[in-house]
Design a protein that fits this description.
By secondary structure, the protein is an alpha/beta fold. The chain contains five helices and five strands; from the N terminus they run βαβαβαβαβα. The protein has two domains: 70 residues, Rossmann fold (3-Layer(aba) Sandwich); 46 residues, no CATH class. Keywords: Membrane, Metal-binding, Oxidoreductase, Transmembrane, Transmembrane helix, Zinc.
Length: 124
């Protein structure tokens, strides 16, 4: 991460468990923004110089409107941005939840519901 210090304009943080913010704040350029998505039930902590010295902003949203989500996806498309994910099947869901609770997830989980009962219900 040291190689990437002060290189990013924005970070969209989707981690819904406690995690230190300083490593991510150090990646942001001057006037960079760390955008927290979702609710974390633990108080977040960070050293104020990490924010003040780089004029960095920590902001967030619990949920966006359909219009905001469309704008965000369009922005990602225009800038050729993508995320690293781990796709899991429905039968792995309980194990995935256990891994989230243990903070053992490197990437965001995406559940593939194809060929599951949920998928059959959606397509009816």
């Amino acid at each position: 991460m040291q190689e990437m210090a002060n290189t990013l304009d924005y970070i969209i943080d989707t981690m819904l468990v406690f995690h230190p913010l300083e490593p991510y704040l150090s990646l942001l350029k001057l006037d960079g923004k760390l955008i927290l998505m979702g609710i974390i039930s633990t108080t977040l902590q960070f050293l104020t110089p990490a924010v003040l010295l780089g004029r960095k902003t920590i902001t967030g949203s619990y949920v966006g409107s359909v219009k905001e989500i469309e704008e965000m996806l369009e922005f990602c498309k225009e800038k050729d941005l993508s995320s690293t994910i781990e796709v899991v099947k429905m039968d792995y869901l309980n194990k995935a939840i256990e891994r989230v609770e243990k903070n053992d997830v490197k990437y965001r989980f995406v559940v593939n519901v194809s060929r599951s009962k949920l998928d059959q219900q959606i397509h009816l």
